[in-house]
Amino acid sequence: MKKLLIHACCAPCFVYIENDLRNNGLLKDDNTYEKVEYTPIFYNPNIHPKVEYERRKNAFIKFCDMKNLNGIVLDEYDLNGFAKTVVQDVGENKKYKIRCEYCYYKRLKKVFEYAKQYSYDVVSTTLTISPYQNHDIIKQVGKKLEEEFNIEFRYLDYRGHFREGQKMARELDIYMQKYCGCMFSIDSGKWVY
Question: Which has the higher per-residue pLDDT, 16 or 95?
């Protein structure tokens, strides 16, 4: 049985996906499922402010406890490092074309490093349930890291289940954030990309 390490951007985005993994397994390219041993991992040092970071981390821990999952928390809050890299390395003719590309890369690279260290076979992310994320860039970043670490990246398009997952999270009384996470996405509670 394959071992899946799934990056959880937040608990609400993980709720539906966890249910699908538990009941069906991991979706394959041919639209069949394979049973996997899955472990969620929270690594989101981009979230701002610190109190919001703590809310999301605690919601992830709460959900993992509810489901008897051994969730992993890589507890790192790095506002200064995140902002510095965005200013230096994001923009036209720079390392990252847009801020979200850097954000996906930073978080998923750390997840791949953990997967390599602890012998996981597959990496995925709950970012792919959100219709507000840039799925093309998530796929590009995932494939780049797949090649770098020689660990499969499984892109799973769960966007059709976003509202259902949000409803499930509300029913479980899981904290629901109002914006993506970084200081640039706050903008009075609107999604900004």
Answer: 16
